## 1
Amino acid sequence: MDMSYLGVMSRKNEIMQKSVGIDYKKYEFGSIAFDYEKMMSDINYSLNDIKQIQLENGVGNTPLKELKNITKMVRKVAPKGKGARIFIKDEALNDSGSFKARRASLSCYHAKKMGYKGVIAATSGNYGAAVASSAAKLGLKCIIVQECFDSKGMGQPEILEKARLCEAFGAEVIQLTVGPELFYVFLNLLDKTGYFNASLYTPFSVAGIETLGSELVKQCITQVGREPDVVICTNAGGGNLTGTARGIKAETNKKIEIVGASVNLKGLHMASDKDFNRKSFTTGHTGFGIPFAANPDRSDVPRSAARPLRYMDRYVLVNQGEVFYLTEALALLEGIERGPAGNTALTAALSIAADLDEDKMIIVQETEYTGAGKHHNAQISFAKNNGVNVYFGDPEEEVPGTSIVLPNHPGLIKARVVDLVHLKKSCIKNHIANNKNNFLMYEDILFLMDEVNENELFVLETIKDLNVKEIKLKGGNT
Amino acid sequence: MINAGSYVQIHKIILHPLERSAQVPMDTKAVPLEMFVKGFLLNDADLNDFVQIKTVTNRMEQGTLINITPNHKHNFGDFVPEVVQLSKMIKAFMDGDDC
C-alpha cells in the first residue's frame, strides 16, 4: 500500500467512506446538486432521540441566563428607548466545556452503535475535548489531531490547553506544525486504525447541535413568555449556526433573525507558519467563517452538513480587542468568567442590541470554558510577546497580526456587516466551478436556491456570467 | 539513560519542505511538517535516540526522543497592565464616572 502523501491522498474518498459509513455519492444528482435534507434525515435519529442520548451523556440542558448588567451597559450607550435584553446560553457548563459536546455526543454514540472501536477528529478547538469526553464515557479509543506549533516549536496557548484537556479525558493527542497537510496525517490514522471519523461536518455532528436551538426557544418561552427576536451564533466552520438554526426551526414557525458573528482576522493567512501565532483567536474567526460559508464542501468530508448560508440572515464581524473587552466585562459585571473565542457572538450582541428597541430579546447561544492558555490574559500576553501592539483606542484601527485595540469606550464596539449577497454569489460560483458538465439541470437551480436561501432570479442572475452553456429543463427543453 | 516504560514525547518529520503541498504559502513550504506524540518508551534509550513508543491508544510510533518530562507549561500569561486598566475602565463606566 502506498503510504506516501500522494498515495494516501489519492485514496481519500475510499478512506472517508469507510470511516464515516456514509456513501455521499448516493445524495448527488443533476450536475452539481445533492440532497442535503435526505442526507440529514438518513441518520435516523430524531430530535427527541438526540435529546435523550445527550441527557444520558451529561450534555445539554444548559441554563439560559439574562445578562442584566451587560444590557444596562448597552442602554448607557444606545439612543433612548433602544437596548434589547441580552441572554446567554451558558454552554460552557457541558461536561467538556463548550457546545461542541452536543456534536461529539451524537458522533461518538453513532460510532459506538456502528461497532467502531475508536474515534478520530482533526481539530485544534474545543471539539477535541468534546470528542475525548464523549469517547471516555462510551469506552471508545480516541485520537485528536491538532495543528498546534509554528516551525520554532512555539505552541498557541489556547491549543495547548485543549491538548491538556483531551489528555485528561484519556485521548491520544497528535500535535503538528502548521499546514493543511494535517489532513494527510488524519487520513493515514483513519486508514491504519479503522476508527470512526468524528468530523465536525458529518450529519451527526450538525444534528447534535439542533438540540441547542430547540432548547433555547423553549427556555425563552418558559422564562420570558415568548420566542427570542434575534439569535447570534459565533461562526467558523458553519456547523454551530446551521445546527442551531435547524433546531430553532424544528421548535417554532416564528421568524427569528439568525445572525452569524466572526472575529475579523483579515490579512492573516490560515496556512502561514509566520501568521499562525500572530492571531489571538484560533476559532470563531473569518479565516474559517468566510471560506467555509462560500464553499462548505472544502471540509474533511465529501459533503458538509454545515451549510450556514441556508440559514443566515445577517453576518457580522467584530475585532479581537472588542471580544477581549466583552470577556472582561462578562466576568466583572455578570460574575461569569468564560473563554474569549466563545464570546464572539456576545460582542456582536452589544452592538446589535443598541439598535433594537428595549422590549426586543437577543440570545447569544454559546459560551466556552476558560482557564490557563484559554484565558484572555494569556492570549493578550502571548500576542504582546509575539510583537503585536496592544493599546487602547478606536477598534476600527485594529490590524490583525499587528495590533489589538482595546476599546476605550463600549460605544465604540461595532458589529460590522459582511456583504451577504457577495458571499452567496461566491457560494454559487464555487458550485459552478465544481461542475463537471458545462450545463445545469433545473434541479441544480433549485439546489442553488436552497443553498443560498434566495429566489430563482438571484441564482439565474448570478450564473449569467459564468461558464454555463445551457440550463436543461425537465423534458429536455432548454 | 531513560528506562523502558517511561512516558515520553517523540518528534518526527512528516513531510520535508520539498514534499509539501503545492497550496501552502512560501513561508510554510520552507519548513517541514513536524509531528509530536507522547507515549510509553518500549526500550531503554537516551535523549535524541531514535525510539519506538506505544501511545495511550496502543498505537506504535517511531521518532526522536525529545522530552522525558512532557509536562504542560501553558499558563495565564505575564502580568498585562492593559487588562487591569480595562477592568478599571469598565467599572468606572458602569458607575457613571465615565468621560
## 2
Amino acid sequence: MIVQVINFFRDRLPIVIRWCYVGLAALVAWDIAFVDKSHAHTAMEKLPGFWAIFGFVACVLIIIVSKWFGHQGIMTREDYYDD
Amino acid sequence: MTTEFWFHPSLILIIGAVLLPLVPKALKKAFLVAVPVLAFLDVLSMQGNNGTFGVVQFLDWSLIFGRVDALSMVFAYIMTLMCIIGTIYGLHVEEDFQHVAAWLYVAGSLGVIFCGDYLVLFLFWEVMAFSSVFLVWFRRRKESLAVGYRYLLVHTAGGLLLLAGMILRFKATGGDLSFGPIGVDNPQLYTYLIMAGFILNAAVPPLHAWLPDAYGEATVSGAVFMCAFTTKTAVYALARGFAGMEILVPLGVCMALYGVVYAVLENDSRRLLAYHIISQVGYMVAGVGIGTQLAINGACAHAFAHILYKGLLFMGCGAVLHMTGKSKFSELGGLYAKMPRTFIFTLIGGLSISAFPLFSGFVSKAMIVAAGFAEHNYWAAFLLTLASAGTFLHTGLKVPYFIWFGKNNCSQETMQKAADPPMNMQAAMIIASFLCIFIGCYTPYLYDMLPYPDVAANYHPYNQYHLSETLQILLFTALGFFLLIKKLAPEPKISLDLDWFYRMGGRGFLWLAKKPIQTADNWVSEAYRIIGLIPLMATARFWSWFDWHGIDGVVDGLARTVQGIGGQLRGLQNGQLQFNILYAMSLVAIVLVIFVFV
C-alpha cells in the first residue's frame, strides 16, 4: 500500500512539484495577510515572509559553508586511519 | 529518610542481567520483555511519592541512592520506557551478554538519575562507561575493538576530571558530598572540573569526538541504547547542578551548529545521526545555561522527546544496516519499494527531530528557543533556529532521501537482501513512532511531567505565529534542499574530527614506545640475560628438579595439585582484555547488590 501511494506521486512528479510551489506561495501569502504578529520577538520578524527567507538562506548557507569547510582537507579518503 | 518501601529500578535491571544467562531458552523472550517492564512499573509506582529513599551508611557518609523528585522522575520515566523499546528492538539477538551489557548500562543511567551525592553518582557514572563499551565490542568487526578502547579511554579521562572536581569540592566545602545546584554564581576550579566531566558525556565540543566514533560502530541494537542514555544522563546532571551556568549557552549553540556542519559532510547514516545528537543535545545544554524555569522545562522536554525520536531514527537506519549490511549513503538508495515500513518509521523520526507541527520535537524544542527569546538572548535563539533548519535538512530530508530514494547505489546483493526487518524490530519502531506523534498532538502528557508543570501549562506551542514561523522555515529549507541536491550527493569520504589528535597522538606514542624505548630495553635485557640470567637459571633448574622429584614427591604432591588447578584457570583467561573487564564488571555488579541490600 505504502509503495503504491509513493509510486502514484512519483509517476506524477511534475504536477506534484507544481503543487508544492503553490503550497509554498500560499504559506507565505497566509503569513503576510492573516498571521497575528504580536507574538514576534523582534521587529525584523514583522517583515513579510521573514521566516521563509530565513529558512531558505539558512539551508543554502549551511550547505555551502559546510561543503567548503569539508573540502579544506577535513574530508579525506576512507582508509585514512588504516595502517 | 522515610521508612516506606522503595526499590531501585537499577536493581531490577541488575538482577535481571545476572539471571538472564540462567533463564531457559523457551522463556528467554518473555523474560527479556518482563524485566524492563518491571523497572518501568517500578518508576511509575514512585510518581507522586517524592522524597529521599535508599540511604545507606558507608564509613562516615550517608549515601543516597534514591532521590525522587520531578526532575529525576521525568528522566527515569523516559529511560525505563526506552529500555523496554530498545530491548524489544533487540529481541532477536541471541547472545545474552549483549542484553546484559545494555541493561547494566541503563542501570548505570538510572543510578545517576536517582543518586543524591557525588560518590554514588561517580560509581554509576563509571558503570555506564564500562558496560556500554561492550555494545561497541559486540559488533566484532576488526575496527570495533579499537573504537571501544578509544571510547573507554575518553570516558575514563572524563571520569577522572569529575573525580578531581569532587575531591576538590569535598575539601573546599568541608566534607560536602551532596549533589545539587553547585553554585554557578561563584564558580571555583572544582565547578569547572565537575562541569568538564559532565559535558564530556554530553559530547560538547571539543570533548565530543568519542560520540560519532562509537555510535557509528556500535551493534545495531546497541546503538539504539547508546544514543539514548549517555548524553541525556549528562543533560540531567547538568540540569541538576548547573542550571543558569552562563557559559553553557554559547557552548550549547556551538554544539547545535557543529553537529549540523559535520552532518552535511557525513556519508554514514548512523554517524550522521550521531552528529545530530550533538546538535540536539546542544539545545538542551543551552537550555540549562539559560536556566529559567521555562528553559529547564524545555531542556527536560527536549531530552524526553529526543530519546524517543533519536531512538526511532537509529532503529530505522539500524534496520537498514541489519538487513543489507550497509549504512553508507554511497552504497544505498532507492530502497522504498523494498523497505517501505522502515521508511515511514524513519520519516516519522525525521519529522519529529525537525520539530514539524504534530510531532514531538515541535512541542519540546520550541520551549528552549522561546526561553532564549524571553531572556533577550537573541543571538542564541536565532542561531538555534538556524540549526533547526539544518536538522530538517539532514535528518528529515537527507537521510530518508538518500536511503529510500535518490540515486540507487545498491549492489545487486544489497538489493536482494533489503526487506523490512523482523517483527520485533518493527514493533519497537511502531511504539516509538506512536509516542513521537502522541507527544506532539497531546501536550499535557509530557508537560505535566516536567519539573515546573505550572510554567509548562502556560506554554502553548500551537499558536498561529509559531505554526507559521515553523512551517516557513521547514518548507523553505526543503526548497533549498531540492534546489541544491546535487551538492549534497553522497561522497565516499570520512571527515576528520578532533579525535584525529588522540588517534594520531596515540600512534606517535606507540612509535616512541616501539622504537627508541623498546630498543634500549632490548639491549639492557640482552646484557642482563648473558651476564646474570643464564648462570642463575642453571642453578635454579637443579634446585627445581630436586624440589619436584625429591621433596614434593616424597611429602604430599601439593605442587602437582596446584599445577593442575592452574591449568584449568588458564582456560578462563584467554588474554583478551575485554573478557577480563566483563568478568570484573559482573563481579562488581554482584558485590554492589550484596553490599547495598544485604
